[in-house]
Design brief:
Shape: globular
Distance between the termini: 43 Å
Number of strands: 12
Radius of gyration: 22 Å
Low-confidence stretches: none
Structural class: alpha/beta
Helix content: 40-55%
Bound molecules: pyridoxal-5'-phosphate
Length: about 400
């Protein structure tokens, strides 16, 4: 059975061209990029090539790109690298745990943290940030696109406010990577962003690869102590094949963004969303009306346990996620959805569908055939769901 993968916010497959770009750096060009001999120089050239490609995509200098092991490390490096006891940091209640838990850890080390609330659409309001700034606010960290709802934050306004207040601005752009243009140059939307996180495995590059963009004048204390790699910002022998794959994936993503691909992806997502809302009653889009990335929709199916629906769809060959994949196994309702004001029951009845540029129309048609059936079956077992017809019959 050909599976239908609608969980691209959890991870994406390697693109064949990314894999092919990486292959020689496992088998032939396996040198250490710090070695002086030819094999080392080959590896160094490949790392530099990838760094240049990423700098072109971000509109920054190559020296401002730091390679890491992924989104989690980049987020931690941004926060721990900048903050010290006595500083104040502002973040939001809908961040990924890579930021939220890092912030809690910093709190226990004497950093004061303010967690901003969000609107019912899952948006951080610039006025809320303005009101929370203090003279000792050192860093503001607000994600670009939310992993559960896809909601896009007003990053330009938020970063501008942070700068005007004398604070640095970090954005976790893991879920914006490959979906929105990212321009940190003085002419770009992200001109006031000082630190920006990206993860390879969300953009068809290998797992265990990531980027932290660090603006030139930002002083960043390293988390790892060792060699002088990455201009003393991230010690450890470079993951050369991973970095090569990341560079290739970024080039492919930048080209795709210039095509009609994003519009087509939005069309497919909207078709899935409208198809579900039309075919299944007592459903709704969480955070409806918010600006969103093209691929994501978060839908609640009232009177259904998302976990049961997820398993039912899995058995039919469809991969989706309930809330965030990073929390699987936890029975707590999603912190993102509850921060938006959803009841715990509704949060637990929510499925996240995240498409990718590999998703086809035929897959969406098949999903639209399977999902209503699966929901109807589960609702037959639900004690709280009363069908309209049976209410009329009584
Ligand atoms: N930030 C966001 C918004 C994410 O969605 C994720 C992964 O789900 C991460 C950070 C963590 O990235 P990684 O899996 O590369 O550590």
């Amino acid at each position: 059975m050909q599976r239908i993968y609608l969980d691209a916010n959890a991870t994406t497959p390697l693109l064949p061209e990314v894999f092919e770009a990486m292959r020689p750096f496992y088998l032939e060009h396996y040198g250490n990029a710090s070695s002086i001999h030819q094999q080392g120089q080959q590896a160094r050239a490949a790392v530099d090539h990838a760094r240049d490609a990423i700098a072109r995509m971000l509109h920054c200098r190559p020296a401002e790109v730091v390679f890491t092991s992924g989104g989690t490390e980049s987020d931690n490096l941004a926060l721990f690298g900048v903050l010290a006891p006595g500083d104040h940091m502002i973040t939001s209640t809908i961040e990924h745990h890579a930021v939220l838990h890092a912030a809690h850890s910093l709190e226990s080390r004497g950093v004061e943290v303010t967690f901003l609330p969000v609107t019912a659409q899952g948006i951080v309001e610039p006025t809320a940030l303005l009101a929370a700034l203090k003279p000792n606010t050192k860093l503001v960290s607000i994600m670009y696109a939310n992993n559960e709802t896809g909601a896009v934050q007003p990053i330009d306004a938020l970063a501008g406010i942070a700068h005007a207040g004398g604070a640095l601005f970090h954005t976790d752009a893991v879920q914006a990577g490959g979906k929105l243009p990212l321009d940190v140059s003085p002419h770009g939307l992200l001109k006031d962003v000082d630190l920006l996180t990206l993860s390879g495995h969300k953009i068809f590059a290998p797992k265990g690869t990531g980027i932290l963009y660090v603006r030139r004048n930002v002083r960043l204390a390293p988390m790892f102590h060792g060699g002088a790699h990455e201009r003393q910002r991230r010690a450890g022998t470079e993951n050369v094949p991973g970095i090569v794959g990341l560079g290739k994936a970024v080039e492919v993503a930048a080209e795709w963004l210039k095509t009609d691909g994003p519009a087509k992806l939005t069309g497919l997502r909207d078709r899935l969303e409208k198809g579900i809302l039309t075919a299944v009653d007592e459903t709704g889009v969480n955070g409806e009306g918010a600006p969103r990335v093209a691929n994501t929709t978060s839908i609640h199916f009232d009177h259904v346990e998302a976990e049961a629906l997820l398993i039912a769809l899995d058995l039919k060959g469809i991969s989706v996620s309930g809330g965030s994949a990073c929390q699987s196994g936890a029975s707590e309702p999603s912190h993102v959805l509850t921060a938006m004001g959803l009841s715990a029951a509704r949060a637990r009845a929510t499925i996240r569908f995240s498409l990718s540029k590999l998703t086809t129309e035929a897959e969406i048609d098949e999903a639209l055939r399977v999902i209503p059936e699966a929901v109807a079956h589960l609702r037959e077992l639900s004690p709280t769901y009363k069908k309209a017809e049976s209410a009329v019959a009584k």
